[in-house]
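Below is one protein, fold included:
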Amino acid sequence: MSKTQEYTIEQLSLLLDMVVRVEEVPTQGRKYDFAADEQTLKVLAEHSAATELTQFEGFVEIRPIRGGLEAKGKLKAALQQPCVVTLEPVEEQIDVAIERIYLRGEEPELDLTANGEVFVDLEVDADTEWFTADKIDLSDFIYEQYLLNIDPYPKKQGAELSNVKDDEDSGELSPFAALAALKQTK
């Protein structure tokens, strides 16, 4: 794909280029750095709650563990979102540790009994992903961690719902007040 072509979030692995070949990870591990270029920042902002994304970078260290791989790293992002109260821009900084375990094989199915009990394998962590191929794409993992750490309700400092005008204050009848008035005239 050419750099001028439009990318979608499904093509994020092409933009971040975080595909790791399992057999190339040495026993002491390997560090993979990532930093989004201008086009990648644009795609990530378009597919998240951000109106602008100015930083998206970090690293992931991969090392063999329990027949699979352990991925630990750091994600830093700087973004801007609209305030949920005033719609003014709110700046946000994300600086979080990220972690995931990748185990070879198929994800085990839940063992459901007739009485509805579920037996949970405590050896398998909640942040475990299963793989069968000879490579792992870390792009989805990194993007997922970014989305999970964005403030879902950004609020500008000092912004309160009481500062927002009600329809009653505007002097206009709300649609419900107009319906109530029609009902009373009958």
The two ends are 67 Å apart (CA to CA).
